[in-house]
Structure formats: structure tokens, C-alpha cells
Predict the 3D structure of the following.
Amino acid sequence: MQHATSKEMERLLALMELEIDYSDFQNHFSDLARLAAKVAGTDISLINLIDAYTQWTVSSHGLKIEQLPREDSICHYTIQQEQYLEINDLTADDRFSDKDYVKEEPHLSYYLGIPLQASGCNIGTLCVLDPQHKPLSPEKLELLKIIAEEVVQRLQTMKDIDMLKQQLKDISGAQLKVAHDIRGPLGGIIGIAEYIHAQGGNTNTEEIIEMMQLIASSGNSLLEMADDILSRKIAAPEEPFTLQMLESKLIQLYLPQARNKNITLTVSSADNGTGLLTLKNKLLQICGNLISNAIKFTPQGGAVSVLLHIVPAEHESTMLIQISDNGPGISPAQIEQIASGKAESTTGTSGETGFGFGLPLVQQLVASLGGNMQVVSDPEQKGAQFTITLPIHKQ
């Protein structure tokens, strides 16, 4: 069990390292999704990435879908395989025969999924589906595996491109900083030289010595600047990811989950004009896992609220993330388990399967950013509140 837990956490971290924004990928993989369906001869093909709670469809062909609870997903079982998973008749499989996508439109019967492997972990799947049985030849299966490898390669390439873009921004920002910082000392040297030249022979020794000291001081400033460049100490500030941008992303990604369970989800932010220097992907992972967890434990007709706030300070401001629900609440013993990182998976209010990795992942991410997480709940009063505080540097 410990080995399985370790492997799942490793898998989630491998997915997180790709820094994927699930809402921005449809156009990047549409050609591969279409090609997979063409190769397999199926009506539908999906490219899915699976986190602690959700299967995110980053590209699809033949079926309009953006996300699915992980417990309802066939691909949840595929990422546990080394090679692939093939199911010839979903209606005869007890795990899936009662799912809406089998009993109702599109009345799926055939499924084949191939794991997408990154850093030795299965982070998602390339799958093909059809209402009819579609036996695939070994040659077609190999072609689908090649397409799956191309999906992963493209994911890594896109991350590398984003890193190069950021490095170019850093270089541009560094050039501006160098130009700005050099102008002062150089201007001082030129000004002193022009003054000495203008005075000609009228400058006395004491004045010359004083001028030379000023020139030396300006020269030393330039040397320090050169040392900074050679030791790569100069860098442009990161492009800020504002609270308003985070608020918009969270609504886009998690409002469908809440609506699917008839839960009201509200997200509000108060930025105060302070930019964030915390990594966008980590913020999305922290908030997303907590929101999914809150939705899981909130009954139908309930409410989940998210507050994003920055408490400004002179040197190091604090970001506050507060996620509240009106579910059944958490006992003191469960809060202690969460704090110790030993929380066990439990079933959601509508029977959702728990996998037990969302909160440990949040704790690990929060700790890596130098923050902390607090949980407050009273089972008698109902509801729970998770509060994350993160240090941020002012833009």
C-alpha cells in the first residue's frame, strides 16, 4: 500500500512538472486526436490527463467533453497498466455498464487506452472509443502507441518553449537593467573628464585627486556590475500572475464540476494591485485540489466558496487562499490526520470514490512555497474551511 501511495504521488508530481493549463490545450493536440480515430477506425478519440480528482480531456475528436470525475473514468484503470487496456464490451463490464456514456448517448461499447508516460509515470491516456466492437490489428496498435509518444513529446516541447520564452523575457529585462545601471557610472566618469578638460591647467592637485576618487568610485560600480553579469545575478522579475487571472481560471476549470453536482461555486478575489511571483501552475494545483475536495464532500444543493486575497506588506506580502464548504464537516481526529499527512481516503457525499492524494499533494506544494495550511471544522455546525497562506514578494 505504501508503495502504491508513493507511486501515485510520484505520478501527480510528474504531471505537475509539465506545468499544464488544462483549459488551453485543445488546439495543440486536435490533429493527433483526429489521427488516432482515423488509425483505429473509431468514432471517438480522446487525449486525457488525470490528476488526483479529475480526468481532463485536453483534446477530443467525435465527442465534446472537457472533464470527468476520475471515479467515472475508464482511463483511471488504464494509467495502472504498463502497455494498454482494451475492453471489447463495456456493457458487459460491471465497472462501466451503468455509466451514462454506456447506457445513454453515445452508447459506448468498445474502448482501448494507451498510457501517456512522462518521467516514468503514467500521467494520462490516449484512448479510442466506439459504439461498436472495433478489433485492432497489432499494426494499428503500434501506430496508436507512436501517436501517444508524440503527445508526450509535444507536451514536453511546449514546456521547453515556454521556458525559452521566459528566458528571452529575462534576457530582455536584464539588458534594460544593465543599460540603466551602467548609465549612471559612465555618465559620472564622462562628466568628470569633461570638467577636468574644461578647466585645463587651472585645476589644482587637490581637485584632481578628488576627481580621480570620483572616477575610481564610478569605475568600481561598473566592475561590480560586470561581476554580477558574470555570476548571473541579474534577472528580470517574473511576469505576474494576478489574482483576477487565477479567479477566472478557477471558475473556468471547476464550475462544471460544481454544476454537475448542483453545487453553487463562488470565487472572489481582492488583489490590491499586487502582482504574484508564485508559479501559476502550483497555484492552480493547490486551489484546484482543494476545490475538488470541497465539491466531493459537499451535498447536492450545497455551496463552496473561494476567497483569494493578498495582505500587503513592505517587504513580503502574504497570499491568502480560503476555501469553505457546507458539507458534513471534519472531526478533530481527521484534521489531525490531514495535518500529519496521513489522511485516508473517504467516500464523497454522492458516493464519489476517494483516492487519498489530493490533500497530501496540496501540503507538499504549500510547503515547497514556504507556506502553511490550516483546517477548521465543527461536525456539529457542519462545513469545513481550508486556509492557505503563502509568502509572496511584491512586484
Remarks:
- Confidence is low (pLDDT under 50) at residues 233-237.
- The chain has ten helices and eleven strands.
- Residues 312 and 318 are 7 Å apart (CA to CA).
